[in-house]
Specification:
The structure is a homotrimer of 362-residue chains.
Chain A: H1 12-18, H2 45-61, H3 65-74, E1 79-84, H4 90-101, E2 105-109, H5 123-133, E3 136-141, H6 146-155, E4 163-168, H7 174-187, E5 198-202, H8 209-217, E6 225-229, H9 238-246, E7 251-254, H10 257-260, E8 266-269, H11 295-298, E9 306-308, H12 329-347, H13 351-361
Parallel strand pairs in A: 1-2, 1-3, 3-4, 5-6, 5-8, 6-7, 8-9
Helix pairs in contact in A: 2-7, 2-12, 2-13, 4-12, 7-8, 7-12
Chain lengths: 362, 362, 362
Amino acid sequence: MRKEHPLSEIAWADLQQLSPNAKAPHLAAKDGRLFHVLLAQQFNREQLDAIGELATNIRFIAKNEGGLKFLQDLLAHKRAMLYFTQPSTRTFLSFCAACQILGVKVGEVRDTATSSEFKGESQEDSVRTFSSYFDFIIMRTEVGGLAERMAWVLSNSDRPIPIINAGSGKDQHPTQALLDIYTLQRSFEEKGGIDGKTIVFVGDLLRGRTVRSLASLLTNYRNVRQIFVGPEKLQIGRDVLDMLEAAGVKYELSEDFRKAVPLADAIYMTRVQDEWDVEKGESKRIDISKYCFGVKHLALLKPAAVIMHPFPRRGEISPEVDHDPRAVYWRQMRNGMWIRAALIAAIFRRDAAIQEYYEESV
Amino acid sequence: MRKEHPLSEIAWADLQQLSPNAKAPHLAAKDGRLFHVLLAQQFNREQLDAIGELATNIRFIAKNEGGLKFLQDLLAHKRAMLYFTQPSTRTFLSFCAACQILGVKVGEVRDTATSSEFKGESQEDSVRTFSSYFDFIIMRTEVGGLAERMAWVLSNSDRPIPIINAGSGKDQHPTQALLDIYTLQRSFEEKGGIDGKTIVFVGDLLRGRTVRSLASLLTNYRNVRQIFVGPEKLQIGRDVLDMLEAAGVKYELSEDFRKAVPLADAIYMTRVQDEWDVEKGESKRIDISKYCFGVKHLALLKPAAVIMHPFPRRGEISPEVDHDPRAVYWRQMRNGMWIRAALIAAIFRRDAAIQEYYEESV
Amino acid sequence: MRKEHPLSEIAWADLQQLSPNAKAPHLAAKDGRLFHVLLAQQFNREQLDAIGELATNIRFIAKNEGGLKFLQDLLAHKRAMLYFTQPSTRTFLSFCAACQILGVKVGEVRDTATSSEFKGESQEDSVRTFSSYFDFIIMRTEVGGLAERMAWVLSNSDRPIPIINAGSGKDQHPTQALLDIYTLQRSFEEKGGIDGKTIVFVGDLLRGRTVRSLASLLTNYRNVRQIFVGPEKLQIGRDVLDMLEAAGVKYELSEDFRKAVPLADAIYMTRVQDEWDVEKGESKRIDISKYCFGVKHLALLKPAAVIMHPFPRRGEISPEVDHDPRAVYWRQMRNGMWIRAALIAAIFRRDAAIQEYYEESV
């Protein structure tokens, strides 16, 4: 009786290779174009370039009222469900803004206390409910692999609609990885691109899903050197290193922040992810004071390098650093809005219309 | 000094007959057309048919971008207040989507912790506040009769605006009853309509307001047989049976689920409403495992019958049943969005414009 | 490295004179026109008149569908962030409605539990985050001076955007003061305006920020007599009286409510602000029953006087008084929506377009 939807033609096995958490997601529509956004690894270099270019076009068009109104009309007939059971301001608001830029109307469930779930409903039923009322779902959850599983559920339902993973569990936060790549693309636009650059990751590399995803996406570029700097207990996981080795990527591990700063073309600071502490207060016993970027480090940094941070920050970067032109983390944050708008536009096949408008405008 | 608004010409007494909870609501505008939506019983058969037809037209028009944009323009100048002090995902989101379909902008109060009510304001003042900023109010509350009372308050204020009852107390959830009727209308569209059909209600019939409201609405149809199946302690209330007897409707009570399944043209499953438990754990002592629809029941069911559920479900229907074409509960859920859009459109007199667009489109 | 934004040309010192809490806000854009809305005192009489007139024009235009659609198109390309960490229904909803009237899309953070702040982010970073995604910020907070500080932060960032203070701490709630002034303007429109009138403030004058702000704004008018009536422990603060004396304004203090009523051209009732109690139950020990307006006081009140209240009310005004035509507090509440729409329109320079449309319509 079960109808197999065309989307499920993409093999489960392919996806499982990409992510051990994936429970048979179907990432692309039948025509091979973007459908679900679930994993950073689903994007190859060509796709990363295309999404980045689309984001840049949207950003350009949005500079004036006429352009904004053109954009707002593109998907004015679409409705998005923002299903955020894991707290997040930044990701929520940037998706909200991205939807508004394209005219998409949003509904939201952020607080599980106001939801029906306490009445004992399964998550499958909740997500199918959203699919009854909305045209796509943007979801964020503490449960690893849930977005992938829900994509599978929907792809096999009567109403398959796209899912965008806005962070699930410890592993995947693909739109963050895409905005990071986009920030690197823009930063190195006139400096030969990402190829050949040295990226220094600093902080809690073990539990920061943004670092894990970005490290993986960077394997799409040639001769990128990745340096992981942090206290031993928070050093990057073995699985990431295995992945880098399999891809033939150069990497180094270090505990010496000061020594790493001058090597960086991009330095990617992160905070301690103590919300993932297994034992209470676990993170507090680790000294991370050596892994903070202060004014004194500016002199060590290459003149053309950039400083990034996925935010929120605590003390990892001193606010005084904000005024240095190499501090691109505020721009990086705003890039999140553009890249998310680009993804939504691509899912609903508005890339060509945007490209056309852009070319007429320049 | 008090100005009596035209709406109050409809007598309080009439309404009290319909609902013992009603405190003088005024359901219709002076021209006799729909104003407040408070009680399932306020709709007669002719009105049920008209609302159903309007929902079908909206559903048809919404199938393409042009139609969606036509709909979005209809009430783009209206603002709705979603006032949900009782938790609900489904009803909230479907109203939200219904508003968006018609272009209505929404404001919301869902969490009383973020509201002024802690400062000791009366509910009358809260509702009059909403009426200061919005064009209609959609409200859901645990307090029986509150929506009716607020409709009365507003009808006698300087700014009478419509109220839609999205569930109040144990008794009334009129838009759920309307979407259930609409689902039956659609299901039996080519099978002679609702007249003469057998509807089997299963589960917690005592406290499920959807069953109570639907049982009442079905009295508008000829020769409908109603069968109530559930454990003795959760059997339908005496007041509903009195109402059916007064209307001359055939009904049966049963504890035997298996025996009832083959009789059904529509089988309406419900969950245990333990949020209404007077004593903690009260519901857990009742065995409802016999009142669940599993794959094994599919063979017992008439080929042309339909399975319904107001959701959320727990174990009342096995997810494997979802793939049977007779399982219409997901369609039923989506019908909720269309029927709510139809109600809003009718309240603001957009039914003729929709009808006209529909006729030009087919 | 720090870029000084043109906005900061307005001297910090000027602002500090206006408000001891102000940390160098920059209220106006380089062209001298409205930018941030932070303090009631930033508006002079000419500006109060202009904002009031703009509100009246918007109110008039909004009377029909064509006008509403004109308004909705004015700022359809703008996005507002509603950042409300202090609970408030009324102010939130009226800003929400004001945005919708002008077509502005909104994002919101109301519940700090769903936000990133628990991850230890500074408020400066939060506000800069909002500025990354939105075009202006409407903020409400328990922290005095915070809106001013954030305006300063933004004015010195790469993305200076306007901040509207929707209530900060015990002191400032400028949009409430503006709607109060607007209500007085309308009430005395055909009675010679605000000049020469007697305003009687009643209740918790010590902690009600609306009274403090309104008392200050009224110094812009000639020969206004201010009478402060309340229990000794809740009498108006010395700083307000100093301000009135410096401005040469006549004032009186009284504990006798009954005696004050007949003197009023406008009587401004307030509730006890017990959320500011230092000691628990502190307010309950004060007898305020003498400071309530009941039906019996209507006979004492001048025929042309008006009764106001900033809401929420508890028992300060009996609901029976609502039906007296001198009870303008519901109109006052709705004025809040119009004045907020006027402020937003003014900030984004749509006043001329509104004026023009208005003149063509009358």
